[in-house]
């Protein structure tokens, strides 16, 4: 078996290679930048509601757009969906999204109150 | 790293704690067969009541309970577990794996299903079974007095959780555990259809979970999602139920399609015609299966545009299904066809299922649907697809894989009598129901008036049901009389796929050496291009095995106990049950279990010694 | 099988995916999150369908307060970052760092949960009970299910922290930590839609 020879209970010793360390440092930088961006996007969403200057007809789709961007950041930067070898995870998450959209839409709209 | 425990465990304890996918598969098959017989009995009782106009065999309330439990049992507790049984046993063998990805969760899935099923049936003895139909439409279900619907909600919630776990397990197994060379596009069709069905489970069951949660909160805690006088809306339940319910029928029928693909190819002695088209059609059916649920709700009043969109999407499913039908026919074309019982079921399936498909397109015509809705036409339609597709598939699969699973062949003569009797009974029962529906007999009625042109066809339908009942008894008899026909070659049908490469009975570790796959129909390739034996992908070595565990049983038992607390508002009992559940989960999380190894020598002994 | 213990256990670049078991767990958990997506979509749809059905009770614009939701959002967002730091430390081989950052995550999670309980308590006082209206039922069910996920996440990560406080990083616990953190991120993903769709759109539209 592939795992033969590995002891699953032994503490892992040693340091990662220089290359891995550099990659981790890069990753940390991206993640902190994304975090700042997320804070910014969130604040923007809150401001667009709190401020009276922005009309609701603009604010609603704008908030949804900001939420989508933020979720994509979470999924790809924080949860590493962009990494190689995560193809199947991507397939399932996006399939779920494709099914979630008509689910939400029909529960909102097709309740027999407004006829389409 | 401990070796296999030397002491022999008791048989009962072994089955209660097993995490072996083969044993879990057999447990699924046994429990599923029990519920299948129970659901069949419920059907027979209903048909007796409808044998004559204004017959008084059953009170109307009992009839309502029977029709609810018949549907619920057959879908959730019979068809799905029987398919899960075959998937559990066969899929790891077909992909050359020693086990599933999550043996512990696999066992948990089974016990959740079983306890959920038992809970549902306890309702018979606790003041009446659920009586709102298997679809449990609100407000009928949310306002229904008594505890029947509470049993429905909690029973399905528990068994649904088990199904979801099983689905994830199959997905990961198929992706991560394939033998070297077994690329996705070399997988047997049964494995492919299991994969797609598992995807459907993953995305469909959460909608049911939420629907049941809402219904539970409404009934037990006074929530108001469906209470119109509080601003609630009853259509929400219908959406949630059918967002789950429609993919559910594909969850059932796709694996059956997979079984037929295996059988038709094996008994035509030909490679499956249009393999990649078959895979693609399966994927498209899976996708479209999610986009059509509102065709169950055409008469709700969603509006003409909404109805049209769902009507067109529904009709589109006929295209990939048609591709499949033609591929099966072209696989048979020019083949050396063997009329074994398994193949008879496959051949009987094609015309039967096409009839169900045609009425499906009729029902999908949203304008005409106003006439068909809630009549026996619908009953006839879905029995044609579910019996004509799923049940024939299960029997075909049973005859085909029986020697693999149980080590003996079912008697072919008895099997053929069973097939003809069942097929005859099935068409006799349901063909006339089309016309009953068209002349206006509504479904779910406990009785009807005489002299309206319904009398003869109802009697015919009941006679057909008896034929199916007797045929099933014949199948059970076959199981026992055939036990002496031991099958020791491991390849009784001159098979094409990996499950026929291993000795019979199947060793605990499935493959002494992981096989190397060189083509679709891996074994057939070796029979024609190689020496008839699979090449090994690894040297013979120790084999790692997972330890058995009693925790799946405990977790399911805890939920079972907690359910009574919820149903009867005994909060202490509910909490106690949940403590058992979370306690067992905690133990599982904290106690590491690394399994054991079967030493190389034992495998060598088993290979050559006997 | 003594030879197995002689093998050097060095830190691989992705300890969570170094074993088949870890890879199975990783993939299975992602699939589970796919299912959770549809689960929450069903709840969101129900909420959106019933949002206007306030019956005699208060509606969203009368109840929700922007500052409270903003604070809760910032707390949960920050906890997502701290759990990212935990995983970075795991990959660096800094086990103490992993435990430390996860502990911070748990504390932030508890703070979030505290605010949520306070919030529900306030709404009940303002006349929105669970059974008041279809809006009330669907609101508490959606946000409450998210809250239950937070509570479960806290219990899960705490269990891992206690169980493995002294063991050091192993090939067995690395996937467990990784998957728990994925779960935590997912809770944040759901919250992004909750604060946007439920709170902001509730106040603004």
Please sum up the structure shown.
By secondary structure, chain B is mainly alpha-helical. Chain B has helices at 11-17, 21-49, 60-94, 103-122, 140-143, 148-176, 189-221, 235-268, 275-288, 304-316, 318-332, 341-364, 366-372, 376-406, 412-438, 455-481, 522-529, 551-567, 571-590, 600-609; strands at 515-516, 535-536, 543-545, 596-598. Helices cover 66% and strands 2% of the residues of chain B.
Counted beta strands of chain C: 0
Binned, the helix content of chain A reads: 55-70%
Largest sheet of chain A: none
Quaternary status of these chains? heterotrimer
Report the end-to-end length of chain A measured between terminal Cα atoms.
Answer: 58 Å
The CATH homologous superfamily name of the domain at 77-205 in chain C equals: Cytochrome c oxidase, subunit III, four-helix bundle
Mean pLDDT of chain A: 87
Largest interface: A-C, 65 and 69 residues
Percent strand of chain A equals: under 5%
| Domain module count of chain A | 2
Secondary structure tally, helices of chain A = 3
Radius of gyration of chain C: 20 Å
Spans of chain C with pLDDT under 50 lasting ≥5 residues?
Answer: 1-7
Order of helices and strands of chain A: HHH
Give an account of the 3D structure.
The complex is a heterotrimer of chains A (116), B (610) and C (205). With 116 residues, chain A is mostly helical. The mean pLDDT of chain A is 87. Chain A folds into 2 domains: 18-83; 84-116. Chain A is 68% helix and 0% strand. Chain A is flat. Chain A has helices at 18-50, 56-78, 87-109. Chain A contains 3 helices and no strands. Chain B is mainly α. Chain B has a single domain (11-549, 593-609), classed as Up-down Bundle (Cytochrome C Oxidase, Chain A). Helices cover 66% and strands 2% of the residues of chain B. Chain B contains 20 helices and 4 strands. Chain B has helices at residues 11-17, 21-49, 60-94, 103-122, 140-143, 148-176, 189-221, 235-268, 275-288, 304-316, 318-332, 341-364, 366-372, 376-406, 412-438, 455-481, 522-529, 551-567, 571-590, 600-609, and strands at 515-516, 535-536, 543-545, 596-598. In chain B, helix 3 runs antiparallel to helix 4, helix 3 (60-94) crosses helix 14 and helix 14 (376-406) runs antiparallel to helix 15. Chain B starts with 10 loop residues before the first helix and ends with a helix. The relative contact order of chain B is 0.11. Residues 1-6 of chain B have low confidence and may be disordered. The radius of gyration of chain C is 20 Å and the shape is elongated. With 205 residues, chain C is mostly helical. Chain C has a domain at 77-205: Cytochrome c oxidase, subunit III, four-helix bundle (Four Helix Bundle (Hemerythrin (Met), subunit A)). In chain C, helix 3 packs antiparallel against helix 4 (95-125). Chain C contains 6 helices and no strands. Classes of the chains: A mainly alpha (116), B mainly alpha (610), C mainly alpha (205). Chains in contact: A-B, A-C, B-C. The interface between A and C is large, with 65 and 69 residues.
